[in-house]
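Quick illustration, no need to memorize.
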Amino acid sequence: MKNILDAPFIKEICEITDNMYRLGWDERNGGNISCSLNECVVKEYIDITKVIRTIPINFDAKELSGKYFIVTGTGEYFRQISANPENGLGIIRISADGYHAELVWGYKKGGKFTSELPSHLMAHMTRLKIDPEHRVVMHSHPTNLLAMTQVHTLDEKEFTKSLWKTITECIVVFPDGIGVLPWMLCGTNEIGVATANKMKQYRLVVWALHGIYGVGSSIDEAFGLIETVEKAAELYLKTAHLPKLNTITDEQLMEVVKGFKVDYKKEFFK
């Protein structure tokens, strides 16, 4: 059996958590990631017949029964994951009844998955119905985006278009726009349901005064979405208080979507 610490999916999540901490998106134990894994791949590295322990989920995830996920641990600091992946990460299998996670590797210090796991699983369930290639849910606290939620309206159309108009490529990277939720208590099933509902339309959902959820078929895709939004938010904040001598117009946005042939959020232009 191969050494799991050499597994590409372990190295990838260690690299991305390092980067997210370095960028200031995930202070202390803020932020969390879950990524689905193929059983055939997992079996190359661990004995999946040996369940270390079973952890209640407090949510019915039966739709995902039998699926494997690598998930960052609750209370774990992203800056420490690459040094101690077996402490900060866990590989779980969703139980047949859907209410438990069967731990098959990780959380060596006795920890468990992020408290946001129900929100992640709800998002996975929603996005898999839309995109069969979906694999990743990523949550972080990007500085400029959070600041923007303090000074900008939380109207999804207005919020999205303010970002689209900062950088020409924004409408190409996230043409479906951004879902926005008002402040809600984190770590609850209620915010998970609200986020999953938004993800029927959006791959990015902002939690006002808290953070953002991004999804994708790969860690790079989810990270790239959040990265682009964060840069756009930084530019918005740097210029919002200044006279606008130049800006991207609606007509120019239409030129971009035609030139790049993207399926954009048409109702945002009505």
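The longest helix spans residues 219-239.
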